[in-house]
């Protein structure tokens, strides 16, 4: 669901950029107190995995494909606020290096996939855990993923109804976006449930979803920063701190291995048909509104196609970039938080 330039008019694009900047800034503010070296490593691995699997378009209907958005998955693994940051960094690298998603539409894409996708997915996941009293955490994450995709599609339809550059029948737009993205959401749900289930199996105590799952099993969900903004600790922070070092390493290894396999090998077999947004644009009649990406001629544009680079090599570069960027920024945040705590600590 990468929105290109000029699907939305300038005022709408600017508004989504401001909203996204505020949301990402708040996510960074909420996440800073939970940062530890373990959480940095897990978030970097999660970001690399989301980038890699977003390259894998899968067929959802005749002539239409979809791909992972990753917000619900990232939230289940590292919590909602680090999840927002993780998906945001994926989208940033995709737009600037691979010409995937418009530059003026970057704020829109962050809003749809990093903010709405992650927070709606996390909220739905917690709702399912309430109903199941903490049982079936992987399935709950899958339901959160399923809900997050059409929710993001609905937000795009609303934005286009307000600020689309081409007049279209709003009812048809909403119907097409929701119908195709429910199918995309089924794939998102399967991937999310499978990955979360794997991490829970090989690295118990690591995934953020285990915190609310345990509290739901005890009869109540511990407040978190989404449902209760005053909560001091993000979900999963305590469980990860108590997890054995070996478990964290296994989770990072599993996610890293999966990212490399997806980016280097499986990406060559991804579906080449239009994704849900592209198919809707063609069907409803606004596909021609898109403008060429400013970086369309760069060697890595379209994941290497523009420069004749093997897609697996482009994928490997992308995974390395997002992992390094995530680790670097979060490590800087970790050090800044440590300095602030030292400066404000009372003298002995």
Note the topology.
Blueprint: H1 10-31, H2 37-54, E1 58-61, E2 64-66, H3 71-78, H4 80-97, H5 106-132, H6 137-163, H7 170-202, H8 210-217, H9 237-242, H10 245-265, H11 276-284, H12 311-344
Antiparallel strand pairs: 1-2
3D structure, described in words:
The chain has 348 residues and is mainly α. It has a single domain, classed as Arp2/3 complex 21 kDa subunit ARPC3 (Orthogonal Bundle), CATH 1.10.1760. Helix content is 66%, strand content 2%. It has a two-stranded antiparallel ribbon with strand order 1-2. The chain is globular, with a radius of gyration of 19 Å.
Helix-and-strand structural type: mainly alpha
Report how far the terminal alpha carbons are from each other.
54 Å
Secondary-structure element sequence?
A: HHEEHHHHHHHHHH
Name the poorly predicted regions: none
CATH C-level class:
Mainly Alpha
Strand order of the largest sheet: 1-2
Number of domains: 1
**What is the number of helical segments per DSSP (H or I, 4+ residues)?**
12
In short:
This protein has 348 residues and is mainly alpha-helical.
What keyword list fits this structure?
12 helices, Arp2/3 complex 21 kDa subunit ARPC3, mainly alpha, 348 residues, two-stranded antiparallel ribbon, 66% helix, single chain
């Amino acid at each position: 669901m990468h929105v290109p330039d000029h699907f939305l008019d300038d005022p709408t694009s600017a508004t989504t950029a401001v909203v996204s900047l505020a949301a990402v800034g708040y996510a960074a503010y909420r996440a800073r107190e939970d940062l530890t070296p373990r959480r940095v490593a897990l978030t970097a691995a999660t970001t690399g995995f989301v980038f890699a699997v977003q390259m894998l378009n899968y067929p959802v209907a005749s002539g239409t494909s979809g791909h992972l958005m990753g917000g619900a998955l990232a939230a289940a693994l590292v919590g909602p606020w680090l999840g927002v940051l993780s998906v945001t960094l994926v989208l940033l690298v995709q737009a600037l290096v691979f010409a995937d998603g418009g530059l003026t539409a970057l704020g829109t894409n962050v809003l749809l996939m990093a903010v709405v996708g992650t927070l709606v997915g996390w909220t739905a996941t917690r709702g399912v855990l309430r109903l199941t009293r903490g049982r079936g955490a992987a399935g709950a994450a899958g339901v959160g993923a399923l809900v997050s995709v059409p929710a993001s599609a609905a937000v795009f339809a609303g934005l286009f109804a307000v600020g689309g550059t081409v007049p279209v029948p709003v009812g048809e737009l909403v119907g097409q976006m929701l119908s195709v993205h429910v199918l995309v959401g089924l794939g998102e749900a399967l991937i999310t449930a499978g990955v979360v289930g794997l991490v829970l199996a090989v690295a118990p105590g690591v995934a953020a979803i285990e915190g609310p799952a345990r509290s739901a099993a005890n009869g109540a969900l511990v407040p978190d920063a989404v449902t209760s903004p005053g909560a001091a600790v993000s979900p999963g922070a305590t469980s990860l701190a108590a997890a054995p070092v070996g478990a964290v390493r296994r989770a990072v290894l599993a996610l890293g291995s999966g990212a490399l396999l997806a980016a280097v090998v499986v990406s060559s077999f991804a579906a080449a048909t239009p994704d849900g947004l592209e198919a809707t644009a063609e069907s409803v009649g606004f596909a021609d509104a898109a403008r060429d990406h400013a970086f369309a001629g760069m060697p890595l544009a379209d994941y290497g196609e523009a420069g004749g680079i093997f897609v697996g090599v482009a994928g490997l570069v992308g995974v390395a970039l997002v992992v390094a960027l995530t680790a670097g920024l979060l490590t800087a945040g970790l050090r800044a938080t440590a300095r602030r705590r030292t400066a404000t600590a009372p003298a002995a």
